[in-house]
Queue: 3 jobs
Job 1
Amino acid sequence: MSKIIHVVESFGAGTLSMVSAIANSQSQDGHQVTVIHSVREETPAGWRDLFVPAVNCIHLPMQRSIHPLNDFRTGRALFKWIDSIAPDVVHLHSSKAGALGRLVSLAWALRSDGPRWFFSPHGLSFLQRAEGRLKNGIFLTIEKLLAGCR
């Protein structure tokens, strides 16, 4: 069976429900499933109980805001985890995980043996009204630049 990694920055709103449902189903189908995740204030207590025991969860601190040094460190750690697990599939969830993961995917761009990459946004950061036009413009520009990554 396949090795599958899910990468998610936020377990808020419906993302936790969606990722746990997908990961649990894949695990029950016999796949080796790992969830690389962050925990934020809105992450519900007992979130781990939503995953079957066979799903491996790895905590990787990420922050929603753009912070080049922290984002570089997180991207480097994400690369190391993905490289060490050697998955067949990497499924990216949330805007930050999607951005970092698509940048990390460039390391496999010229390799034929790398994983297949998927990005499922569960909300688009550049559409959030609370952020303001400047931030939304930056988020939209980043999404456009990363759209061509695997």
Job 2
Amino acid sequence: MNITTEQPKIIVIGSSSIDLVLNTEHPPQPNETVMAEKSESFFGGKGANQAVATSRLGASVYFIGAVGMDPFGQQIMRNLVDEGVNVGYIVETEEASTGTAYVIAANGVNSIVVVPGANYCLNEKHVAEAEKLFTTVDLVLLQLEIPMETVDYASKLVVANGKKMGIYASPAKKLNPEVIENATFIVAKSNELSIIFGDEPREQILRKFPNKLFVRDDTNSTTYFNGTEMKYYRNDHDSVLHKMGMGDAFAGGFAVALCHGNSIDDCVRFGNDVSLKVTKNRGSQRGLPYLKDIVQE
């Protein structure tokens, strides 16, 4: 694994939210009321998670997103600043409240309902206002908790400036073929491939995108086709207790490793190592490692 002295410059375009977690013995069934053992709140949103992940791994990070003009929005902004993320291109809107996610956590399984709120107010104009950044960055990271029109527009800006682009295709939506073509790498969940790419066998989909598509599952495994053979990498520990944010952590780690010029195999290993750290702590951002935590190992 090679970490150069250069500081990668990354734009993250995506969502931010406050995650409200209810811990119960079992998920409520229809017409059932259950008692929560406790409630907790965490910083989340796939975009903000990736911004924090890449910042902690030594990148210079600019976040393009939207929050409401409410206390949750201010909390998110302060947290990102504390994490070393540039928030100069975050839009504060009166059109909607800050995004929230409601999580029922029971027996290691999470049931999540997301209220996008201000995240769905992020539009092409907001991304265009940051266009000058696209000329200087190494890589742009995207997820799908913002309007797909915004994703499509950002993809075109990336190509116009000859930059790398990573997409964590979650929550799963069908991707524009042009976006797939423009992407340097795509991370997807194993059970959502048909939504993103169509109803074909998993191996057939992987073979279409050598060294571009990386399929993840919640055991912290990554499968990809390198152009010659299927590759599979997995590292986990005895108790993968907290699975929220694993995909974001992997995407952030992969992106930083790629910016440092590492091989695809090393990028996958590094992404998996970053993802594994998240499982040891509750909350998508709390367990994200710093570069020294990974490199020393």
Job 3
Amino acid sequence: MLAVAGVLDAPTVSAIREQLDGDAVIVDGGDTAHGMARRAKRNEQLAPSRTATGIAKLVEERLRTHPVIAAYARPSAFARIQVNRYAEGMQYGWHVDDAHIGGMRTDLSFTCFLSGPDDYDGGELVVAESAGERRIKLPAGDCFVYPADTVHRVDTVTRGERWAVVGWIRSQVRDGAQRELLYECDQLVAAMHAPDSDRDALMLALVRIRGRLQRMWSED
């Protein structure tokens, strides 16, 4: 799981919000959910339109070209990108995203925040981890990327409204552990070129990666 700052810069966020505050048509978010998720989902989303398509294309471009997200997610395609809104009293209970959306495998999910933390109370994205719950509420323009099979929810908004762009990525690398190792290798290569790099820390990181590969590939 990865929080990435400034994927959408302030002018971009403002431009998107101006479109949403205009004559954008909002529909029931449950229309795009299935099974248990449909019963748990209580939010709204931007209806299919030229505005929705334009926002989706813009966000996809920013995600594809952002160096951190490109290295972490290695996107091959985007299954769907949509804008959602949580007004007061809205929430999305515990659920897992579909394995396929629009006929495409989903490896990673993402949430790019369009509302700042001071714009609303509640509304945290909550993901279940082995050590407990992780709560995410990022500044406008920041994105959170996580495996699509993560159990997660959005807490009830108690004040204001929460706008976000959400979507799903099919990665060039299907396996999450392999994808993570490639990301760590990219970070290690970048660190090696830093003038103040710590040789011991780099060696430790390399040994860790080698150990993970040995465990991944060993038959015994």
